[in-house]
């Protein structure tokens, strides 16, 4: 099993292994670490490379899935995304950088520092040419932020581009200026009402989303159904703080900074994990959001934070840990129960560097969510990482 853990200085693929036991028990151990650094993948400097990452499918058709990572502060915050063709062992075979220097993106990205690459996502092929395509969030591009859908060629070039924004898939005034639309991106699988042969479902974060009644900023998420003919939005729902089920989200929490989806309860229906890393002056937390996908409604929220649900990390993460800057849901230990991983880039550490990745092994059911074991992956806790990890963990994806 391969993870991609992103840091500002290196990109680390971590293979994790564990003997399967009953759900949520046991210990996660490292199986393999593959480090991408500037000798294997060229990063733009001071670009926050690794702010986002996604495994996007097999772009070049060699049988191995490929990856993409964002560098939103590249080129004075115009941003870039690097597509990495992977070898089977997780090493980089070749790379392709998408930025305003890419002709299909020049006009869109040249107008301002839009932080293209703040989020990246893969929803498979969205234009019917069998090549997986790429979604990229640029949360300060234009007044409201945009999600850009990039139709890829097999050499990781761009065949064409479309967007999700006001007037393109959304209503003319769906998004309000300054909401940071595209701060997080997730592909949502397993929703019974979606025909995945013809459509994809994605969750998009608005980390500064406004309550539409009070105009105060809480953070929001937008769920969009995309056509696999041309990537266009065929339906969407915006969950701002004024909507039913959103009351637990607090002011200024950055809700929507990161999103993931997975069938945590084992009911056959995914819930969402939504990061709110600015909660409590940047302590951060994650909301597990139960959804009624037929009604497209939020039915409940479970809060994951230090000290809750049985997660009691030692040493404590501290008051600026920014829990939920990155989130991932996946069955990490292959025991049949979906687990949660969290990036906490400000977590206090023993040693010179802050930041950690928390792996929370869950044992959940239709009416309960419990953390039964947890593992700290960080500079100080894992000597094997010390040669690779020199800065903070932003994001994790499987
Ligand atoms: Ca490939
Ligand atoms: Ca395609
Ligand atoms: Ca599991």
TrEMBL record:
Segment forming the signal sequence: 1-22
FG-GAP repeats by residue range: 35-93, 102-159, 241-298
Family annotation (Gene3D superfamilies): Integrin alpha, N-terminal
UniProt keyword rRNA-binding, yes or no: no
Pfam family membership, one: FG-GAP
Cellular component, GO, one term: integrin complex
Assigned keywords, A-Z: Glycoprotein, Repeat, Signal
Keyword Signal (UniProt): yes
SMART domains named in the record: Int_alpha (SM00191)
GO molecular function ontology, one term from the record: integrin binding
One GO BP annotation of this record: cell-matrix adhesion
Descriptive protein name: FG-GAP repeat protein
Organism: Thecamonas trahens ATCC 50062
